[in-house]
Amino acid sequence: MLNPQEVYQRNQVTTARPEELTLMLYNGAIKFLHQAKLAIEKKDIPKANSSLVKTQDILTELMTTLNMDYEISNSLLSLYEYMKSKLITANINKDIAMIVEIENMLIELKNTWSQAMKQGKSS
């Protein structure tokens, strides 16, 4: 049986437009990176690993949903691959600085994506 929050989240995903789903993925990745940093600080290695793997899974999803008809998609693909590689290393070494680097990159991408969504609505 799903709890009310899970039902809400599932409904949110199933009714979201593609651009909203991308924003949700960015938000999820940022949330899991924050959880990973906290877990490393608390020496909760299984939680840190789980949160970093979830972020890597989100990056994989972002890579697979790129529309390669656009030139920018090649740049995003390279960027996502870089982030995923850094997170694997960060997970092995439990390196908070690497996590912060990727978190900042994702925040910037999320903010840019959010701004593009606003401009798209006003057009």
Structure at a glance:
This protein is mainly α. It has 5 helices and no strands. The chain has one domain (18-122): Flagellar protein FliS (Four Helix Bundle (Hemerythrin (Met), subunit A)), CATH 1.20.120.
Q: Structural class, please?
A: mainly alpha
Mean pLDDT across all amino acids:
92
Q: How many separate structural domains?
A: 1
- The string of secondary-structure elements, in order, is HHHHH
List the total number of helices: 5
Low-pLDDT runs:
none
- Sketch the major β-sheet: none
Query: How would you describe the shape?
Result: globular
CATH level 1 class label = Mainly Alpha
Strand % is under 5%
Q: Assign the CATH topology.
A: Four Helix Bundle (Hemerythrin (Met), subunit A)
Number of strands: 0
Distance between the termini: 42 Å
The CATH homologous superfamily name equals Flagellar protein FliS
Work out the helicity level.
over 70%
Q: CATH architecture, please?
A: Up-down Bundle
